[in-house]
Amino acid sequence: MNPLKTLHAEQDQAVWLDFVARGFVQEGGLKRLVDEDGLRGVTSNPAIFEKAIGHSDEYDDALKAAGDERVIDLYEGLAIADIQAAADVLRPVYEASGGQDGFVSLEVSPYLALDTAETLDEARRLHKAVARDNLMVKVPATPQGIPAIRDLTADGININVTLLFAQGAYEQVANAYIEGLEKFAARGGDVGRVASVASFFVSRIDAAVDKLLDETIAAANDPDEKAALEGLKGKVAIANAKLAYQRYKRLFAGERWQTLSAKGAHPQRLLWASTGTKNKAYSDVLYVEELIGPNTVNTIPPATMDAFRDHGKVRASLEEGVDEAERVLAHLAKAGIDLDAVARQLVEEGVQLFVDAADKVLGAVAGKRQTFLAAGLDRQALALGSLDAPVKTAIETWRKDGLVRRLWQRDAQVWSGADEAQWLGWLTIVEDEAKKAAEYAAFSAEVKQEGFTDAVVLGMGGSSLGPEVLAETYGHQPGFPRLRILDSTDPDEVRAVEAAVNLERTLFIVASKSGSTLEPNVFRDYFLGRMRDVVGPDKAGRHFVAVTDPGSAMEKAAKDDGFRRIFYGVKQIGGRYSVLSAFGLVPAAAMGLDVAAFLASARTMVRSCGSDVPPDLNPGVQLGLAMGTAATEEGRDKVTLIASPGIDTFGAWAEQLIAESTGKEGKGLIPIDNEPLAAPAAYGKDRFFVYLRLDEGADPAQDAAVKALEEAGHPVVRIALASKSSLPQEFFRFEIATAVAGAVLGINPFDQPDVEASKIKTRELFSAAEKDGALPAETPVAEDDGFALYTDAANADALRKAGAGSDPESWIKAQVGRVGAGDYVALLAYVTRNPEHLKPLQEARVALRETQHVATCAEFGPRFLHSTGQAYKGGPDSGVFLQITSEAPDLAIPGRSLGFATVIAAQARGDFGVLSERGRRALRVHIKGDVAKGLDRLKSALS
Ligand SMILES: O=P(O)(O)OC[C@H]1O[C@](O)(CO)[C@@H](O)[C@@H]1O
Ligand SMILES: O=C[C@H](O)[C@H](O)COP(=O)(O)O
Predict the structure, then answer these.
(1) Cβ distance 899 to 890 under 8 Å?
(2) Domain boundaries defined on the chain
(3) Residues 134-150: pLDDT tens digits?
(4) DSSP H helical segments within 536-612, as ranges?
(5) Which ligand has the nearest atom to the CA of 756?
(6) How much distance in Å is there from the Cα of 199 to the middle of ligand 2?
(7) How far apart are CA 613 and CA 359, in angstroms?
(8) In CATH, what class is 428-598?
(9) Mutate which of 42, 45, 270 for ligand 2 pocket (most atoms within 8 A of beta carbon)
(10) Under CATH, domain 376-419+603-745 is a member of which superfamily?
(11) Contact assessment for residue 520 and residue 512, using Cβ atoms and an 8 Å cutoff
(12) Is ipTM beyond 0.90?
């Protein structure tokens, strides 16, 4: 008879197979083993699935068919299907054995091995999902696993206890089983239908102990002792297993067990696992031949099975030489090798090995998912040059420490251990909002029905920049209102919005999470006043909707003023992370975008960046680690954003996210948006480039410039979008990336302490001005017909020392003279934001970059105060600032004694005050009269 068959027929030992794979089961390989070798069970573990799924294309069809699912669901779908198929093949064995054999084992996620409650949930979930009577759920015998083993047994679930190495742990496991059965019986369960095995690992013990023996032998002097120790090699694992078997016999005897046995309970069989020979010097059937005994199981890997079938010898070996086994272990102890310590370490390593395998198999599935999604997922490619090695190290650290999972579990320790956990609502908002897609569609239809021609978002920062990207990227949708944004207190800008729309057919979307931000409140006061004039006080509210967080003052006011509707944000989401919540979706719906499709696109990226996707395949995490590491390792903290025409306003949203999140405590990333591209030599070693390329309509000049940057050794991340419709993916990618970069920098990426400071200053200044009738007078440090220059005493002192004299130009030159390598220059213009004003600022940037070799920013106030302003004040002290103010004719605000001109002036002063307090290099250039002329003069001075 085939020796494999003989094991069961003559020795009452069940042979199980330590392997599973799709083709093997589907093509009849497993059935053949059952028929020909008398196979009675199957075990799997994460490493086995890693081999099966990670290294073959057998699963590709299933993965292709599944499409855009979560990676863990894809993986589990494959694994569960294999386990079910194997269970069905073994069902006849199960039936014939009266439910005592014919099992297939599936292991709980190794990520949970150190958590009792999660292990319990997971085991119950798998038990239900597989839905086969002959399933055994594998639970590791970690200290946390043991109570779970007891409770699962008490549920009547069949458990395969895995990662057992030590006698002590085995005793606890057996007792947990007995206790579980007692509970199950007490609940009226039929203990006779419960089966369990305790998987005692064998070869891994020899591998570990032999190594220690070699070290001990090397250190020993006595040749006899050396020889005696040599004789222990390859013996310890078997001795340990033999003694475990003796213990088994004792544990499943005696009164306590007899009570259960009388109710039909079956002992928990010992299963020899890890029985493939690892050391080639030993017999290839060692761990089968030496462990043959009744009522046990040996789960054998395929190669060992082939070997045993070929030349295995069957004898009742398990009860042979028990005394010798005791002597082996005693000798080992005498030699100073602590087997319990080895076992403890093997459990730890065992968990980690399975974690590594799970990471690999999830990575493999994630990689295939990406491939099969093809153009459905925006592609990302990193060319990091010298940053490659440190980023790889960071990726490995994140993998080993399970940081992606911890981020998703909202563990504040990923960042600074402050209140980060309360600000992670954006992680799950896409799924939550998708449930409301029909509501958004109804709102969209309502807006269309009403015949609004314009919809104007009144908000700042996170409440306006996302909607602006949507308005600019997707443009006017026929039949729907044109989406416009107002995020400036510049009187001319307010006037321009009013002039552009027909108020009678305009819908205003007042957006403020806090409800207390100054600008949206004054915009609202202004346009509500105008609307009352135009359509009458009763109807005005119908032209307004509010988007705000529950309980805000804005909510109350909106109710009082009879707003058409109030949409709510989520308090656990900060403004800059809110675009995929109502703050982006309400404007999206108003302008006629398909919110369901929008969210479906975002969800593809959410899933690609999931907790189940290891860092090296997780696009958001990868980008974040690259950005963060670039700053910490190489001082490449100027994240330079390049985007194809058509999606180029994305940068203004991303710069808020990056700057306001990371720029604090003297650290941070400085986003550089909308800076004209140049040849590589124009850039310093402080740059990190991110290129968002739109496949349809990419600019060849940008392509060429980016290629040149890459070839010159600058780190470049390329993100390719097949079409504009996949832009929602980028919102989420950048959110994860920013959160991860924040973790690398060790800051809290969800607060904005320095923005708050300037808000307070502005409020104080404005209130005082309302009392006094005007802002306090200031004395310029230099002045002529066109410019008046202001700064604080410390800056004035430094600038005078650097050559500033009586004429404005000398001050500007001195300010530019303070710029050094690694610095950036920021032009902070409190002027009307329009192309005419942007042009000279852009030209000045180019000139500054050429002469000073530094990164440059051009920002419009007050909008940047709610965006990059945080990093300018709180980030690295590498900014050189030129604030630009102007004098637009005032515009009154209903209910306020002073108008928009004072608001914007107070904002500029508040901003400057905080820059001064932070000791930043700042100079204010006030343009008298014509702004365009003043900007041209400034440009010349800067060139
Ligand atoms: O939506 P709110 O509360 O009006 O805030 C607007 C913006 O102001 C800030 O708090 C900074 O000033 C941003 O973070 C935010 O996006
Ligand atoms: O249940 C089976 C075990 O997971 C397996 O036997 C471990 O074997 P290894 O030590 O060869 O990985």
Answers:
(1) yes
(2) 3-350, 376-419+603-745, 428-598, 753-942
(3) 999 999 999 999 999 99
(4) 537-540, 553-560, 582-590, 595-608
(5) 1
(6) 9
(7) 8
(8) alpha beta
(9) 45
(10) Glucose-6-phosphate isomerase like protein; domain 1 (3.40.50.10490)
(11) yes
(12) yes
